[in-house]
């Protein structure tokens, strides 16, 4: 697909939606829905300046730390649990129990246990993002090709060598899928944790705008969250294509047969 065609597919629908928004809002004076031009002006005034350093960057740092912790925890536990049938049977009820708990309800509990600080916000993100990575990793390890597994056993590949040469690459498409799911969950939990208890951050700023009826400013914060989500997805797609280059090549060969 040519670069021009990719750019067209990327901007066509957003352009149509913005045009529709402009048509529907041009003859109204609604206090609750700003016009596109007004939102762009407010966005530039609010977020390009001190707030970028005081609110946006701290939120992104918490999100990055939380996601990194969830990735390490999810893949590490997933490899251990997925490789052991006994461990899977022992942990399955506990995993189902904790997975069913919505992470936002833990915010008051963590506030009491950890305190109102950045550690609490990161802990909420780690808790919510670990599950999709962990469960996908377990399934990925369980689905390792038996022929490859037997071949590794015949050649005496065991322990760390087996994990690095067989298990981890074979399970990588599954846990990469889990990480993709965790990105949006992490963004949501970042905002929720900052809305509950914080003096800075995107969630805190958006809720302050809402309480002071600064509606265009509030919408600009929501638009910024959407842009961050799009940027995260684009960066992750680049990383995924590089890490799973062998997997996508294999799929292309299979589809061409």
UniProtKB/TrEMBL annotation:
Annotated membrane topology: Multi-pass membrane protein
Main location: membrane
Entry annotated with the keyword Transport: yes
One GO term of the biological process aspect: transmembrane transport
Gene Ontology CC: plasma membrane
Residues spanning the membrane: 7-24, 60-81, 182-207, 219-239
Sequence ranges assigned to domain ABC transmembrane type-1 in this UniProt record: 56-240
InterPro entries from the UniProt entry: MetI-like (IPR000515), MetI-like_sf (IPR035906)
Subcellular location: Cell membrane
Family to which this protein belongs: Belongs to the binding-protein-dependent transport system permease family.
Name by which UniProt lists this protein: ABC-type nitrate/sulfonate/bicarbonate transport system permease component
Top-level taxonomy: Bacteria, Bacillati, Actinomycetota, Actinomycetes, Micrococcales
